[in-house]
């Protein structure tokens, strides 16, 4: 297979032709071939498209994936991981990290991939890279949990709902990491361990999630979420010296705060998240950059499931919020009909 042909199709975004070439030549060696200008490899150009499936297809039959993923000919020392950062594709970044991308390498302007992400405004990606650990964890769910950058108890409960038995079974690995890793990872692991235990001790799993969504007024503050976070921090305050100062700060935060919350504080300390728009988070699980919203008041949600969890409380303030004309506009909406149908299921 000619790398020139593949590169030509790639530049024209003719991905089907790219796939066909790869299928016809399963033993391809084009990944490290240079482009006609000798500036980047074919693999780096594939990453630059932001198309994760093309990247996976190139690596599908390559045994030394880690070597390819870290290989660069860029004159400024940009690595494939750095190129993925510039695309803003979080899934692509995670895929490269999962397959051995070296996050510690710096380019010729002395910036790592995480620093480049922060510099270019990709704060979520910067947190994803910074939150990675180099140790191999035998349980994939714990391995993923440790790298989370959203630390809301409801988010953890929702995301790991169908694997929670395995999470609880392997929760001891979080304590092992807490005993061997430096701050803030050790503190983050201790916090996550307590969150898992708190969820596990809840009499009703779904009720626990719903309780985290409780609001007391139209501002959207989450007092139950605050109490859950504070409780988890208090349980491990003696196991990590740095926790005492953090706990003091969190304790001074009002449980009715919407900005400058306890959740924001622990995410800043544990995940290095300094800029995260609270108004764009899901109102149930607090996942960042939620794309849908209530059709009436524009409160954000990840999907219909999250809105269903919050509806029993949210409906009390929905009309009032809408009348005050608060919240973002022109976003994909979840209609009342969709919500009513979901509640009937």
What does this molecule look like?
By secondary structure, the protein is mainly α. The chain folds into three domains: 3-130, Alpha Horseshoe (Serine Threonine Protein Phosphatase 5, Tetratricopeptide repeat), CATH 1.25.40.20; 140-275, no CATH class; 292-344, no CATH class. It is 54% helix and 2% strand. A three-stranded mixed sheet has the order 2-1-3. Strand 1 (292-294) and strand 2 form a beta hairpin. The longest helix has 20 residues, at 304-323. The protein is globular and about 65 Å long.
Number of helices: 20
* Distance between the amino and carboxyl termini: 52 Å
User: What is the β-strand count?
Assistant: 3
- Write down the Rg: 23 Å
**Structural class determined from secondary elements:** mainly alpha
Oligomer: single chain
Helix percent reads 40-55%
H/E element string? HHHHHHHHHHHHHHHHHHEEHEH
Average residue pLDDT = 87
Characterize the biggest β-sheet: 3 strands, mixed
Topology (SSEs and partners):
Blueprint (H helix, E strand, L loop, with lengths): L2 H9 L3 H10 L17 H7 L3 H8 L5 H5 L10 H8 L2 H9 L14 H7 L3 H8 L9 H7 L6 H7 L4 H6 L2 H9 L4 H17 L3 H8 L10 H13 L6 H10 L10 H10 L20 E3 L5 E2 L2 H20 L9 E2 L1 H9 L1
Parallel strand pairs: 1-3
Antiparallel strand pairs: 1-2
